[in-house]
Design goal:
The chain is mostly helical. The chain is built from seven helices and no strands. It has one domain: Four Helix Bundle (Hemerythrin (Met), subunit A), CATH 1.20.120. It is globular, with a radius of gyration of 18 Å.
Length: about 210
């Protein structure tokens, strides 16, 4: 969903930071770990209701999803081990962030939800489905790659999810329910899109079912 020109421009802009980390001896794995720690800090602020701080920190933590990969490339340290760590921590990050929103709704918030359609129980259920969709999107890609049919297709993948979640928090509590309602639709559409792209690729092949 993010245009390739914007992705290329962003990578160009963060290159000085990548060079800095290279010169100071940071490893790609250390940047991956630091990004996860920032997500924990962000989740803490979200859980206590400080959405602006939590959203800004979450947005900043997302930069490390690019920095670790770029550092691995320029230092020739791209490896299955690093990819495994990065993917695992991404899932932990998503669980922690959405869990923080759920905690806020159930235990911290005092009045953002009213009885009816937009109540906290519906909100928490919606968060659960968003989490399921996020995990399923990643699983579909991983399973397809394991069967020799790797694909990155999906118009609303992890970078878009992180940015959208951060923006929902930054915009504020009055928008949070409907913000996640939109996110739910986009994540669900991406799951369906990726499933059928992979299914179509397998059709007629020896690994087809």
């Amino acid at each position: 969903m993010i245009p390739q020109k914007i992705v290329s421009l962003f990578r160009k802009k963060v290159k000085p930071a990548v060079v800095f980390f290279q010169k100071t001896g940071f490893s790609p794995d250390s940047l991956t770990i630091f990004g996860l720690l920032l997500t924990f800090v962000s989740s803490f602020f979200i859980a206590i209701g400080s959405f602006l701080a939590g959203g800004l920190i979450l947005l900043f933590s997302g930069i490390f999803d690019t920095l670790d990969g770029e550092l691995a490339r320029i230092t020739s340290r791209v490896s299955p081990r690093g990819a495994f760590l990065d993917s695992s921590f991404d899932r932990i990050s998503e669980f922690t962030t959405l869990g923080a929103f759920a905690y806020w709704a159930l235990f911290t918030d005092k009045g953002s939800f009213s009885a009816g359609f937009a109540d906290k129980n519906t909100f928490v259920l919606m968060l659960f489905i968003v989490l399921f969709g996020s995990l399923l999107t990643s699983y579909l890609r991983a399973r397809a790659e394991g069967l020799g049919n790797g694909t990155r297709q999906g118009f609303f993948a992890r970078p878009e999810r992180v940015i959208s979640t951060a923006l929902i928090a930054i915009i504020g509590k009055k928008f949070v329910f409907w913000g996640f309602a939109v996110l739910l639709l986009l994540v669900s559409a991406t799951c369906i899109q990726r499933f059928f792209v992979i299914w179509k690729n397998f059709s007629g092949g020896k690994d087809g079912r």
